[in-house]
Amino acid sequence: MEVPGNKLQAGPSAEDTTYCQPCEQDDEILPAEVYCTVCKEFLCSSCASVHRKLKMSRSHFLLDKSNMPTSIVGHKDEYECTEPCDIHPKESIKYFCSTHQTLICGHCAVQNHRSCHADVISDISKAFKDGKEYGDVMKTTARLFEDINLFASDVEKNVDVVAKLCENEVDKLRRYREEVNKYFEEREQALLKLIEKMKNMDEELLGSLKPKYTNLKSKLEEINVTLEAQGNNMIQLFIETKRVKKLLEGLQNELDNIKKENVIHHYEFRKDPATERLIASETGMGTLEIIMTENTTTSESDHGTLGLTVQGDGQMKTIVAAEHTVSQATDLTVLRFTPAMDISMKSPTDNTDCHVSSMLQLAGSRLLLADFNNNKIKVVNLQTNSLVFQISVPGQPWDICLLPEDRVAVTIANNRIQFLETRGKLAFGDHIKVNGDCRGIAYHEDSLIVSFFDGKVAVLNMNGHVIRQTHSDGSGKELFKWPNYLTVVCEGSTAFIYVSDWFGNTITKLDTNLNILKTFQDPALEGPNSITAVGNQLLICGFESKNIMVLDFSTGQMTQIMGKKEGIQHLLCFYYCPQQSKLLVTEQYNNSVKAFNTIE
């Protein structure tokens, strides 16, 4: 029995010949030109043309003569393809486009892959399991399973390490706390014993004086009785009185001697300065230091480590730096400001109105203020909004900068930079003399960068020796007119100096060799005064323009964030505290610090 589509004639090439199956039904034997993968039929060119036109078959994928099977015998799918196409869910995936390395259905083949080389999956999949690709996938899968198991083991080990580390460090902390408690208990007992000893000594002394003054009192009473007994005998009264005068002189001398012995110990408990500094310190008891972070994942690559030292009061934070580092932070231009409670900074001992030219936050909630008019450095508690301490300095203080080891440097208008110790209460440290009326100050890498009233900017060592300074232009005129303030900003690994020039209405960027790199100016900024860096932006206080501007380091654009509508007058300086979401400003002729809450 003949099968449609198979050869009808004998001959050496008969087995390689296929015929149009629809025509063969009408007893026409025409060679097949294409093969329909959906209908699974061989078609001649005429039938193929009709097949492509019919609505029901126009989307069928036809294989040309070079790609179609040579015979229908054995060309039956052992397994039907039933996986739906991602693009045409009603169609099943039947082909693999080697050109695009993607799985496609018949619709995909007609619409998007007509010029591609596509293989019938049922044909090329027969030997796929024995091929290299499948073998590589299985090896990769097995290796990935192994890696996951190893990683899971590493995670479990780290869980144990983390628990043990926590247990050990908590144990160390508590043992140390016990030692500290024991030390203070012993000190308390020693002080209590000393107080008791002082009390006993004074009580013993006072007890020894009692019989002495009692004896004197008895003798005096005897004298009084003797004199009263002679009240009617004037002669005898005269004689006894003369005798008594010498006795009274002796008794007076005895009383004077007793009075000299009546000396008790006046004592008071005075707090230990070291303990006071400990209480005021944010590192009391100790610090938590991350000695390294280690990637303990088992892999073929080397293990990497990263060293980092931090300090804090129960929270980890980076070591305090004396300069600002450009990093990602809140965009100051989107902040909104609402008035908060003002902070009074007027002291009863002030001689005149306050002129706060600089503010700087110390450890904890202490805000340091330089009162130029009253020759004082003041401390405000930001939690209670109250003035808690002040110290008079030898001259008019202008600007303050942080130094390592709990110190600050203060520029004094009479050619002096004064160092202050800030751990606990403020205390005087050393000072250095400078050549000129110094104004702005910043610290960077064991050097001080200082601006002067006469227009120059200089880099000094910590002994006051000038390392370098700005030079005047060719006419002898200084490069700056009145550089009141400056700050150091680290952009990446490079430090730059930003200087505000009051009369020049400019912000100037310099390198650490004091070469001018760029000058920024905006019509809305007049009399730039205090400046500070926050993230990748610079806050600028405009005295004459009565506003606060923000300079974006990346674009060089200035934007006003506060002004007259917020009630801003002639600004002297400001301090931005992102942790408390507050902006503090001081104004001319105002004895209070204005506070604003910031809202994003």
List the helices and strands and how they pair.
Layout: H1 21-25, E1 34-36, E2 41-43, H2 45-53, E3 62-63, E4 95-97, E5 102-104, H3 106-112, E6 118-120, H4 121-124, H5 132-229, H6 234-261, H7 273-280, E7 293-294, E8 305-306, E9 310-311, E10 317-318, E11 324-325, E12 336-339, E13 343-344, E14 356-361, E15 366-371, E16 376-381, E17 386-392, E18 397-403, E19 407-412, E20 416-421, E21 427-433, E22 438-444, E23 447-452, E24 457-461, E25 466-469, E26 483-491, E27 494-501, E28 506-511, E29 516-520, E30 528-534, E31 537-542, E32 547-552, E33 558-562, E34 571-577, E35 582-587, E36 592-599
Parallel strand pairs: 11-26
Antiparallel strand pairs: 1-2, 1-3, 4-5, 4-6, 7-8, 9-10, 12-36, 13-36, 14-15, 15-16, 16-17, 18-19, 19-20, 20-21, 22-23, 23-24, 24-25, 26-27, 27-28, 28-29, 30-31, 31-32, 32-33, 34-35, 35-36
Helix pairs in contact: 5-6
CATH topology assignment of the largest domain: Neuraminidase
Q: CATH superfamily membership of the largest domain, which one?
A: TolB, C-terminal domain
The general outline is elongated
Portion of residues in beta strands equals: 25-35%
Please state the average pLDDT score.
83
Query: Kindly, what is the distance between the CA atoms of the first and last residues, rounded to a whole number of angstroms?
Result: 88 Å
Helical residue percent band: 25-40%
* Computed structural class: alpha+beta
Query: Nearest-angstrom radius of gyration?
Result: 48 Å
Counting structural domains, the number is 3
CATH class of the largest domain: Mainly Beta
Adjacency order of strands in the biggest sheet: 11-26-27-28-29
Uncertain segments of ≥5 residues (pLDDT<50)? 1-15, 298-323
Largest sheet: 5 strands, mixed
Number of helices: 7
